[in-house]
Amino acid sequence: MKAAWAGLLGTSELPSDHYAVFKACTRDTAIAVPKLRDLFGGEIKRRAGKAGRAICNPKEFRSHVKPHLRSRHDLVWEVKGKPAPAYLKGQPAGIPQGLPISAVLANLYMYDADQRIQQSIRKLGGTYRRYSDDILLIVPNGRGAEAESVVRIGLGKIRLQVNSAKTVRCRFLRKEGTLRSFSVDENYIVQSPSSASYLGLTFDGRNMRVRDSTTARFMIKANRAIDRARIAAAARGESRLKKRQLYARLTSLGYGKAYGDAVYDQSNQVLPKGAPRLGFFKYLQLAAKVTNSDAIRTQIRQIENQVFREIDHAEKRLEKHAASR
Questions:
Q1: Which residues have C-beta within 8 Å of that of residue 59, sequence separation ≥ 6?
Q2: Residue 293 and residue 208: Cα distance in Å, rounded?
Q3: Which helix (H) or strand (E) holds 115?
Q4: Cβ 120 vs Cβ 154: under 8 Å
Q5: pLDDT by residue (tens digit) across 229-247?
Q6: Is the pLDDT score of 206 beyond 70?
Q7: Rounded to an integer, what distance in angstroms lies between the CA atom of residue 133 and that of residue 87?
Q8: How far, in Å, are 14, 33, 184, 206, 298 from residue 197 at the CA level?
Q9: Predicted TM-score of the model (pTM)
Q10: % residues pLDDT > 70 (the chain)
Q11: 14-35 as b/e, with b when 16 or more CB fall inside 10 Å?
């Protein structure tokens, strides 16, 4: 990372200000939330909230928290309950997710490898695409093994490895005049029908869809949000749900219907007071627009109808609870 950074600047060493940022990104420390609870004797808030309240003041941080800070790399593998990969050889590696500069540094680290891999894949008559850690290779029939080898060698030169458990191979064939996608094994022998997946979308040769696991995760979160709203209404002794935020967050009604017209200023990113941020249905609508996929539009209707049913079911439970009191 340091060499790639300096190379981009055209210098042999990083300037002092750049080096300070480099150290902050690669030698960071962390503390586990349970440890913080022990230190401060109870529940702690991990977000500042509306009041901007910090977990502790600077003096408390230096006296209580700082002595317990550990390398983030060691803490991550401990939380995962796994030993650090052997190829790390005991050395810390990686940068934290969520830093404003994380995506830039990831692309910087991959820049030379991307160039080499792209040139090699083009020579095979194929296409190379990468977004973060998600790589897509599209190559002519019979060149798959060569393409995989190109990527493995290219990543190996910068001390990265392909995650074999997440590698998916598909072959597109025409069956009865229709393009279809089939899974293939490590030897590229065709198996059963299976969709190709990239960046949260799947393609089976005919339809582009949002990945099922993505919609399943949304429904889990939606059900939790609806249940929290029901519990809160029950605690207030009410027989009806407050549904405005639920509709805005969990359906395609969004801000136009739930919060009035023209309440979201795209240029200034201004949201009305109390309105939740643009969510999953905005993503679905943009995906349908970009891909022009009728299948995604059908998914939107199906998911939305399921959300409406869950809200209706929660309200009936709430009414029943209120009637029994």
A1: none
A2: 6
A3: helix 102-123
A4: yes
A5: 898 888 888 888 888 778 8
A6: yes
A7: 18
A8: 39, 35, 14, 13, 19
A9: 0.72
A10: 87
A11: beeebeeebeebbebeeeeeee
